[in-house]
Amino acid sequence: MAKKEVDDRFKKFGTVSFTAISKTNDFITYLEQGKVMGTRCKDCGAVFFPPRSDCSKCLQSNMEWFEVSGTGRLVSFSELTYGPVGFENDLPYIIALVDYADYKVFGRIAKGTPYEDLKVGMGLKAVSNTLPDGQLNYVFTTP
Amino acid sequence: MGRVGIIGVGQSKFVRGYPGSIRELAFEGFKEAVEDAKIGTKDIEASIIASAPEYDKQRSPAGVIAEYLGLIPQPTFYIESVCSSSSTGLKVAYSMVKAGLHDVVAIVGFQKMSEISSSESQERMGRGADIQWESPFGTMMPAYYAMYAQAHMAKYGTTLEDLARIRVKAATYGQINEKAVYRKEVTMEMFTDPESNISAPVARPLRVGDCCANADGSSCIIVASEEKAKAMCEKPVWILGIGAASEAVNMAGRDLLTGLSVGIEAGKQAYEMAGLGPKDIDVAEVHDCFTIAEMMAYENLGFAKPGEGKDLIASKETYKEGSIPVNVDGGLLSKGHPIGATGGSQMRTIVLQLRGDAGEMQVKDPEIGLVHNIGGVGLYGNVTILGR
Predict the structure, then answer these.
(1) ipTM rounded to 2 decimals
(2) Chain A contacts of B155, Cβ < 8 Å?
C-alpha cells in the first residue's frame, strides 16, 4: 500500500519550528512565494494575524487569505542577548510587535538593523525571508 | 453560605538545587502548614497539587505527592496555570468549600526547577508562549517583559533607573527573609557598573538585576469553611474577594502593552466581590517576575495611576513604612520564583502579615491584604483579597 503523504510544511517556519502540521500550512507556501498572509472570515469578516483556520467570532471555518501589506507602526521590541536552544547562531536578534490597525504582527526585525535605530511608533513593513539553512520566516524592515 | 478562611500556611526555603525529590520538597511546605493550622492529615478532606508540568519528570504528580503527604484516600486534583498555579488552586479550593463538597482543603504548590538539566530547561523556555507563531522567532520570557518595559518607557517616560529602584527594594527585604534564595544587597550603583553582573543585558532593555531568581521550593495553604475555621483556628484569615482572568497568548492578540490586562480584570473582580478599593489595601504581594511587572502591577491594581508607578517607588511608598507596602518579603525578584509554589508563598506572606506574625518584615497593623499572581506573560491572572 502506498504510504500516505503527510503535509508537514509548517516545520519550515522559523529558526526552529515546533509545529509540523497545521491547517494553515499554506502560510508556508505563500512565504515561499514572497508573501506574508493572514486570514479573513468569509462569513463575518473578522481579520486574523497570525492566520487561523477557524473563526473565534462566529465559530465558522470559512477562511480566505489576505496579504499583509503596507506599513505598520512599531509597538515595542527587545534585543535578545541570550536565546533558547537552537537559536545560538542567530544571537543577538531583535523581536518586535507591529500594529497594522486591523491586526498586529509579531516577528523579527531584519538582521543588520541596529537596536539604537529603532523607535516605538516608527513605520515598518513585513517581508518574507529565507534563512541560511533554507528555513522561512518574515522580518520587519524600514519602508 | 458562610465565608472561607485560611487556617494554615507554610513554605519551604527557596533554594538553588534542592537536595531531594519533588515529593520531599512538597512535604516541607505542607508540614509547616499542617503544624501552623494545628490539625492532622485526616482533617484534610481533599488536596489540590499545583505545579508547571514541563519541569516535572513525574507524570501526573498529584497522586504521588498526595500519597507521600498522607492524604490518601481523599480526592486529589492537579491544577496548572504556570506561574499562577497555586493561586488558581486556591480559587478551585474556595469553590469546593463554598459548594459544600469539602470543609477543609490543602493547596500544595511546588516546583523543582533543577529537576531537569539546564539545557532541557533552556529548551522548554523557548516554548513558553505561542509555539506555532512566536517560538520559531526565538522568544524568551525576559524578552516579552522587555517589550512591555520598552512600551511603558516610550509612553510614560519610565526609566531604567525607575526599574532598578524596584529591585533595590526587593533586595532590601530578601536580606531579612530567611526563606529567600537571594539574600544579598542590590544597589543602584550595581545597575550602572559594567563590572557587576546585575548590569549585564539579558533582553534589552532588561538587565540581570531586573529578572527574578529561579529557585526550587514548595508552599501550602489550608482553607476551611467558616464553621470549621472558627472551631479549628484562633486567627483565621478570610478570603474576601477572588478574581481571575485570561488573555491572548500571542502578543499580536493584545491591545495593551503598557500593563497586563489580566491584572486589571482580575483586580476589578476581586475589589468588586470584596466591596473594597485600592485605598483599602494595607499590604500587597504582586507578581514581580521582572521589575517592570511590579511597576505595571502598581498601576493595574490602582495603587498608582497609569504611568505614575515610578513616582510610587521613587517616594518609597511601597516600602514597609510607606502607604502601600508591596513585596516586603523580597518578592519573586529576591525571595525567588519556584513557578508552582509562588502563589501559595505570596498568600503565606499576606496571611502572616494580617496575623501579625511576619517578624522583622511586619507592616504596622494591616487589616486588608492583596495577592496578585500572574501566569505566563500575562496569560493568566489571579487577584485575591484577604482580611482578618
Answers:
(1) 0.96
(2) 120
